[in-house]
Structure formats: C-alpha cells, structure tokens
Predict the structure of Monooxygenase.
Amino acid sequence: MERVAVVAGGGIGGLAVAAGLGARGWRVEVLEKAPAFGEVGAGLSLWPNGMRALDALGLGDQVRVHALHDIQGGIRDLDGRWLSHTDTAAMEQRYGPVVMIHRAEFLEILHRAAPGLRPGTEVTGVDLSGPRVRVEHTGGVTEADLLIGADGIRSTVRRAVWPRSPEPRYAGYTAWRLVVDSGPLAAGGETWGRGERFGISPLPGGRAYLFGVAGLAAGGRSTDGELAELRRRFGGWHDPIPRLLDAASPGSVLRHDIYEMPALPSFVSGRVALLGDAAHAMTPNLGQGANQALEDAITLVTVLDAHPDVPAALVAYDHMRRPRTQMISRRSRRIGALAQMRALPALRNLALRLTPSSSLLNALAPVLDWQVPDAGRAY
C-alpha cells in the first residue's frame, strides 16, 4: 500500500526529506505557503556532516559541481591580524571538506529532486483523532500517514500540534546578509570587534557572501537603508571589507534579527515530526542550521525505512536527533556570546591567539564526526 507524507515547508530540510522519501516510494506533497520556491541573496556553508547527509540522499555530487572547495578561513581582529586560522588541509583529512554554495543554486538542486511541490499552499489545521493524520490546507485536505513540520522557526505545525510549546527567543543580535561580485579572494573568515563582527565567504564565479552582525534591540531598521548602515558600521574595518561593501547594491542587503528555539521536550507526536528550524532553530555561529536539517532529513528517511510502524519510527528519530541538535544549539549560543563580547575583547582575542589550531579542530569533533545512521541499526 502506498504511504503518503505531507511536508509543511519547502526550505532546505523539507525539500531534502521529500527527496529522500520520494526516492523510497512514498507519495509526497510539499506544501509551501510562499507563491514560489526559492531564496536569493545568501551563501551557505556545507560542512562534512551535511555533505555526508547529501551523499546518502544521492545529491552530494550535484552540489560539489556548483560549490567552491578549499576554503581558507579563520578569525581576525580589527586590524586584520589572524587570531586563529583554519587548517583546511587538516580539517579535510580528519572530517572531510567544507564547501560553499549560493543558497539559490542549492535550493534548485533540491527542487529538482523533490516530488509533489505545491507552492502557494499553507497548512491551516491538523487533526490527529483518526488512524491517519488529516492535514487541512488552503488547497484542500490530505489524509497522510506522516506529517513533517519543516516550516521554520514560526512553524504552523508546531503550534497546531504543540500549542504550549515555547516561543522563539531573540538571541540579542541582528545580522545583515548579501552577495557581491568580489573577484578572486585569498581567504574568507570572520573579523571580531566589540559587539560587532563581519564575515566573508568566497562563492563560485568570483562572488562573495558577506554578513555583518551587531548587538541591537529586536525589530529595528535603518533610517537611511541597510547598506548605509553596514558601511557606517564596517566600512572602516580592514581590507577587503570596505572594497566589498563598495561593490554592494542597496537592494541586495537582507536584514534579520536572530532568533533561536528553546529546547523542546519532543520533536514528535504520533504521526507528526518536526524537522529543521521548526524543531531546533539555532544561532548561525557554527554554520550548522542547514547541515542539521539535512541530518534530520536522512535520519528520518532511514528510520522510516527500518520500521514499517510510523509512530515507532518517529520515536527513534526523536531519540536520535533531539539530544544532538540541542547540544549543537547550546554550543552555537556560547560561541555567539563570545563573538559578541563588548567587555574585554582584548582578553578574548589573546585567548584565541594562544589556543593551538589542533585544539580548535578537536573541539569540532562532536559536530563534524556525525555519520549517517545505519538502517539496520536504527533501533
């Protein structure tokens, strides 16, 4: 008998799990409330753990064709001096490569792989009273064996199934993101100041993904435009930051207050599972948001392959994913607090200079050592 899955949300996690389930014979509907699938104006780092998930979904090679490899990076001070430098050769040898890709190009790969795309369709209600889950949406009603809430930090599915779940909380800082034509860059990385930082990540095709972060009250906006705000805050920092900001256009800047999800007591209920930001939205300080959504996707596909009973499979998914993602969320929060320090940044910078690169590499092991679950050992 054909099994039916409804995926609420057409972002990275939703499309990835739809691709995995579709390849295994599920009939999938991906309900995306936006009128079109896609995202522009930002880059994405795919770490070794995320690439393992993509390889298991059969998409890794397509991503590598469109991605930039051998990325140099680290952390600098305001004068451009390295506080810590990433040993990319050692990282690749131990964990695997890190690659950079434009989000729009990555999403296009996922779009081609995912079946049942229904843009302009929003979930309006969830009924768990019957033997299957009844998903009400603006396009009608779908009876499904499984509902996956991959609809982001303000998840409709989470609010419908867990009405008492905590609300997202503001992390204390705002981020600006943009992509510019940069020409060749020798290296990327972040520069840490006092309560502010700026990041550069080279992208294929002579482009660069830029981001600025500042500790601000939530909900603010710049009176003379976000690009002007970026240039005012970061235009006097070390090269090549001023040159890259000069290459930006005002319409290219995205501004977002950074929110995260408090730890949830469960990611599943009956035939409903949360995935990605709906379950564990985290600050971007470890670059793990998309990578954890990809891990979620292949783990969920794997446990559903290993067990025909959907509720039992979801319990296994929750046991495998919730402790790990919440651990990574805590780590990311701590790194953000360190990076955004206003008091004694010189002591922070000295500590970074004195920390061996091998110690920094070892600290990544709990995040990057992840392996795709074995379907035969998923329980």
